[in-house]
Amino acid sequence: TELKGDAWNSLFWNNHDLPRIVSRWGDDGEYRIESAKMLATLLHGMRGTPYIYQGEELGMTNVQYPIEDYRDIELLNFYKDRIEKGYPEDNVMESIFAKGRDNARTPMQWDASGNAGFTLGNPWIKVNPNYKDIHAQESLNNPESIFHYYRKLIRLRKDHEVIIYGDYELMYPENKDLFAYTRTLKGAKLLVVCNFQKYTTDLPLQKELAETKQLLISNYPNNMSDVEMRPYEARMYLIDTLNK
User: Fold this and answer.
1) What is the pTM of this model?
2) What is the per-residue pLDDT across 211-225, written as a single tens digit (0 to 9) for each?
């Protein structure tokens, strides 16, 4: 909101210095696909230019290596310093697993072949062991994949001016489960609502959902409720404010 009229924002969850977002704020286990799509929905509905970091569109996850397999000098210095100060090694490694920079620097996972199809040689850092299940080839072949969901979000931004230029308003800022906001432009209103929890949570949007609306995208295929949201559920609605 403070950038409105003064600047244009860069929207990103990941970069080479940050851990994988699906592991950080999503669920990289049971709800990896749902939470990755939810995080994509939230970001791509905002005002600014979204950036997609390599592997984000596949739902690539953090890694858990023994310390000798890491390469980031900051990470290695952190480990050395904390061990010398007497911190329990398990606690130090938990911190590295959660926020180490090498999480985002593992080779891109192209297919299920050796080294995830990244190289025929030895990569500078090990490939994430889950590459046989999470890779670009599988994502391209699966119409319900995270990759194709990103494509739909990009198309929606091109098709609806309100997503680019609409005014932003955060809803329910005290709600610890939901992240919901609106974008408004002329006679159009965009409503984005995302459940950040791995449990079903109440949906306090009955007034908004009673309006004439079109569901633009959701990360769940069916059985949508107007009173609750499923684990990591995300929805993006277009509301017609001219025909109230």
Assistant:
1) 0.95
2) 778 999 999 988 888
